[in-house]
Amino acid sequence: MYSLLKKYRQQLLLSFFLVLISSIGFSQSVNSVHRKAILVDTHNDCLSGQVLEGRDISVLLTKGHSDYVRWKRGGVDIQFFSVFTGETPRKKEGFYQDALQEIDSLNRIILRHPDKFDFATGYQEARKKVHRNKLVAMIGVEGGHMIESDLAKLDSLIAKGMSYLTLTWNNSHDWATSAMDESGAGKPLVTKGLNDFGKQVVRRLNDAGVMVDLSHVGEQTFYDALEVTTKPVLLTHSSVWSICPVFRNVKDQQIKAVAKNGGVICINFYPAFISKSFVDAKKYWEGPGKDSIRAALQQLPEYRGETESLNQRLSFLVQQQLDKSLPGIKEVVDHIDYVAKLVGVDHVGIGADYDGIGFVPKGLEDVSTYPQITAELKRRGYSNQALKKILGGNVLRVLKANRP
Fold first, then answer.
1. What pLDDT, in 10s, does the model give residues 264-286?
2. Does residue 101 share a domain with residue 51?
3. CA 245 to each of CA 172, 272, 273: distance values in angstroms, whole numbers, following the listed order
4. Could you give the CA distance from residue 381 to residue 403 in angstroms, rounded to a whole number?
5. What local confidence, expressed as pLDDT, does residue 17 receive?
6. Looking at the whole model, is its pTM more than 0.85?
7. Is 21 exposed, middle or buried (0-12, 13-18, 19+ CB in 10 A)?
8. Which residues, 6 or more positions from 189, have their beta carbon under 8 angstroms from its beta carbon?
9. Is pLDDT of 322 > 50?
10. Does residue 375 sit in the same domain as residue 320?
């Protein structure tokens, strides 16, 4: 009996060590391919979400999603910094001045920290500067409204190093209509798509070697731009409509059209673009669910006449409920997997939208977590070559095709 127990214990220990060795081997394999790949994220809002708030992204921060320390932990090599302002300008001088303010703020960071940050405008420059323990910064301008329908201002942003222009944000403007408005979720439209000036903008971007970004644009604008462009496009931060049917996501026919163009769709991590169940939960807990909690709190003696403390408690409880519905790493990778299976591994990348989103998926809390994406893709059987394409190779190909 004793010898049987001893043998059984030895088998258990052997099994444990085999699993442990296998796990260590898998982790080392993931880490190796992740570090060797050139990791490119095509959309981060930390200029408006962190820098303009006075935070120093050259050091480890306790707020926000992004800083140099966490980018390096995450193995990020090239980060496209979004130059963004909403449909109301921050400065009285207008949208274009907002854009210049953010570009200047990025330039100052690079000048103050040349050991940590570098700048690139094209493929050769970016490729040359990666893997030097610096973060290579590139500029993407989010929203065609920021050129104020002025080709001279477009040329100025090109001269300042803009690598892509997102034709619209959620707001439509004089020459292009947005996904929000075209879908009926925003303002009513008289006409949809690109007008003649908008088509001229696309041609000017092609001539200058600046990538056309079709995230945020309406379907008519999307197809109008594809008809005009002579170069591959990007969708810098969009996800899959078939998995999560919201106005900001792209449908199968759009994904196929991008693949035919030679472009790339970079998956957005925002939970409300990733998970339909989170969308439903958000709709409930920010609507009737929130009203129910408020009514219950108002019955408690400690909150009677205490509006500020009631609102704080209410926000906390709503956040708590929404946190229970957050998608995780697997759900994000489902979107990458969907695009790869529909049109091939050459047409998908990463555009997380960190510091521009109010919620993040579980396990992907900030820019240090990108290795989790690599690990999940590896578990699903993606080859090292495919992983290198998804992590950045595909975006670099489009960058090269636009501005070699």
1. 999 999 999 999 999 999 999 99
2. yes
3. 21, 10, 8
4. 33
5. 45
6. yes
7. exposed
8. 172, 177, 181, 182
9. yes
10. no
